């Protein structure tokens, strides 16, 4: 039997090419956790985009598309932050689901409930982003994660505001 490939990440042994005791490793681990949640969120919003129905179809279909398009780019930026630290971004669906704290939605809720779920997930993502930005600043992050995270937090807050406003208009 051959030795395990050190470049392979599994759900039971996520990649940690950076020494775990360093502040930078803490940021890298946090970025991978954020990447996992962002990936689950991205797929959930695509699911809602594909399956939204009812009188708000056109509005929400377009809004969900705008959200998943943004998160597609955000996922890439987060993964690049992980790579810039010499680690491997979480990349298998099994590892993503193992690492994520956000849940998939196997149901197809009503349009208003979809928006409520998206708002709740954005709140959870923003909390994670804020905490990770603080850790990056404390770690004197030279790779720019704090800036990426601050920009992400601003967009999350804008999206939450717009979706809350939409719900209040019903």
Taking the sheet with the most strands, its summary is: none
Overall pLDDT score: 88
The CATH superfamily name is Ferritin, core subunit, four-helix bundle
Q: In which range does the helix fraction lie? A: 55-70%
Number of strands: 0
- H-E string: HHHHH
Tell me the count of domains.
1
Level-2 CATH architecture: Up-down Bundle
Amino-to-carboxy terminus distance: 62 Å
What name does the CATH topology carry?
Answer: Ferritin
> Strand percentage, roughly?
under 5%
What would you report as the Rg, rounded to the nearest angstrom?
17 Å
Estimated structural class: mainly alpha
Shape: elongated
Low-confidence stretches: 1-20
Number of helices: 5
| CATH classification, class level | Mainly Alpha
GO molecular function: DNA binding; ferric iron binding; oxidoreductase activity, acting on metal ions
Coiled coil: 115-142
Protein name: Starvation-inducible DNA-binding protein
Region (Disordered): 1-24
Helix and strand arrangement:
Elements: H1 23-51, H2 57-84, H3 93-99, H4 111-138, H5 145-168
Tags for this model:
170 residues, mainly alpha, Ferritin, disordered N terminus, DPS_DNA-bd, Ferritin_DPS_dom, DNA-binding, ferric iron binding
Can you tell me about this structure?
The chain has helices at 23-51, 57-84, 93-99, 111-138, 145-168. The chain has a single domain (23-168), classed as Up-down Bundle (Ferritin), CATH 1.20.1260. The protein is elongated and about 50 Å long. The protein has 170 residues and is mostly helical.
